[in-house]
Amino acid sequence: DWTASPPVALWRRPVGPGWSSFAVRGGLIYTQEQRGPDEVVACYKLTSGEPVWAHRDTSRFWESNGGAGPRATPTLSNGRVYTFGATGILNVLNARDGAVVWSHNAASDTGMKSPQWGFASSPLVVGDVLIVGVAGQLAAYDRATGARRWVGPAHGVSYSSPHLLTIDGVQQVLLLSEAGATSVALADGTLLWEHPWPGYPIVQPALTADGDILISVSDSSGTRRLAVARGPGGWTVEERWTSNGLKPYFNDFVVHDGYAFGFDGSILACIDLKDGKRKWKGGRYGNGQLVLLPDQDLLLVLSEEGELALVRAIPDQFTELARFPALEGKTWNHPVLAGDVLLVRNGQEMAAFRLSLAGR
User: Which element (helix H / strand E) includes 108?
Assistant: First the structure.
């Protein structure tokens, strides 16, 4: 109830340009930002925003729409932080002090040129393998040594990240790219199946409760539901439906109780996963982002203008419960909720808020 107990600001701090979100563990938060000529992986204290360490690479990406800075969010695993910069620098750092474990230029390794809006994939760590989407091509490295394991099929542009799936008992990695959806074997990167749907995907695929895959590949493509299975003759991919009721652009949608909630352009919408039909559309938040709070049937929305909103995650109708100013300026970064602490940032500022817990 934000009327009775609004979010409480814990701290605010200037931050360099970039559209990275936060990774959080053990009282520390990690993000990427641009500081002058350097692309920076930065670690701060969760409780105060106080800097802990910063790793710098002399590298700067800029384009007119998004401006300067890295686009991807760090990944934390096994006491290390894994980051991918906008020009293709792949870093593995000690999460405690930022010491370099190993570093590669994944763009050079794969021969992929930086796409129009920069490399944007967040790294995926599975067992002893680190996988990154170098635009529309997956590249896998030995997590400990940095030795290259395999490189997947090249499919041009992509701003999406590798997505781990298990279908019919087979672990695989799915990437949305300019060509559509491509899934490869985790062990060696060989092609398992693909679904052509040209675009320039930015958002992640999502899974339904019964294992189907939801994808979107551009700002006008809509959302498509795929059924993927392995039979005696190999892999099959069936399109169940394509819906124009939800057209995500660069804001991920969420699946909850048989429905998908996300942005149809700059307006929130809800579609039924049975047939893709829209249930409602309402609330203008620009190119905002959202987090699902499934136990409360709530969407925590961060608008493009830096406003926080609570919206019901139910199919009956659009209902905004509360709104609260958090940041100023263009805000594309994804918010993060760690316990009862909400972290938000944009290209100029980051902030932490304490959210009152229900019944307290």
Answer: helix 106-110
CB 167 within 8 A of CB 174: no
pLDDT digits (tens, 9 = 90+) for 29-60: 999 999 999 999 999 999 999 999 999 999 99
Say if residue 275 is exposed, middle or buried (CB neighbours under 10 Å; 0-12, 13-18, 19+): exposed
Query: Quick check: 69 and 32 in contact, CB under 8 A?
Result: yes
Which residue stretches of 9-74 are H helix? none
Question: SS3 for 107?
Answer: helix
Q: Which amino acid is at 209?
A: A
Taking a C-beta distance cutoff of 8 angstroms, is the pair 122, 85 a contact? no
Closest CA to 101 of 80, 126, 121: 80
Residues 6+ apart with CB under 8 A from 247: 216, 219, 220, 221, 222, 223, 263, 264, 265
Which residues have C-beta within 8 Å of that of residue 284, sequence separation ≥ 6?
Answer: 266, 267
Q: Please choose, from the candidates 314, 359, 344, the residue with its C-alpha nearest in 3D space to the C-alpha of residue 10.
A: 344
